[in-house]
Amino acid sequence: MTTYTYDPTVPAANNAPRNDQPVMQTNAVSIQGIISVDHENFGIATNGYHTVIHQRTGAGTQDLTRSGSGSVYANIPANIPGVNQLLAGLYTPDTTGGSADTQLFSLTGNAGISQLTGSHTASDGWCWAGGILIQWGRFTPGGGTFPSGTNVGSIIFKDRVVGAIPFPNNCFMITASPSTLSTTLATTTASVIILSNTVSKNGFSFEFFSSTNVYNGFYWVAVGN
Predict the structure, then answer these.
(1) Residue 131 lies in a domain
(2) Are the C-beta atoms of 126 and 101 separated by less than 8 Å?
(3) How far apart are CA 114 and CA 153, in angstroms?
(4) pLDDT tens, position by position, 23-72
(5) H helix count then E strand count, the chain
(6) How many independent structural domains does the chain possess?
(7) Which helix (H) or strand (E) holds 25?
């Protein structure tokens, strides 16, 4: 990483140009160097355009842990009315074992914040999209497969970031799909029923029904804010 030298005191009003010339030349070289970082440089038809955007991480990276409920975050720039800001921040995907990764966020002039990027390789995860939180996961029964008949259970959304997940406000909807280890089409169907009166920002309960024991769980997706 290059450090650019710049002296804002030249040219001085009472200095001879020959005395300020070396410093002015250094300043001009520094300006050209800074322009060339992430931009097309002088002399190119598209000069001024971005080639790539780098944002600082590590020291100075925003801590995007939510404080309280709703869309209130701590340690991010103040919103500027009528201005949209982009910022990079570390966001921990899972307090039970995940490591923080750099993500890109947008902060609007009305203090609305949205996650623009995400990288989650686990079978369960989350993503903020335009102020909407999407979570997903897989439920596996304790014995490896569901016994035939009706089985009941609950899903508790992980507290991946304290105060942010589970859903800060509401869970809008949940969908689920049974899964099987069978390499051929199952001869019987299975169903996952979400008990709507149990749906909350912290989790939900379900009933799983099948006439056989070939189903080894189900996948679920929850949407909220």
Answers:
(1) no
(2) no
(3) 32
(4) 999 999 999 999 888 888 888 887 778 888 777 654 344 455 444 333 34
(5) 1, 11
(6) 3
(7) helix 17-36
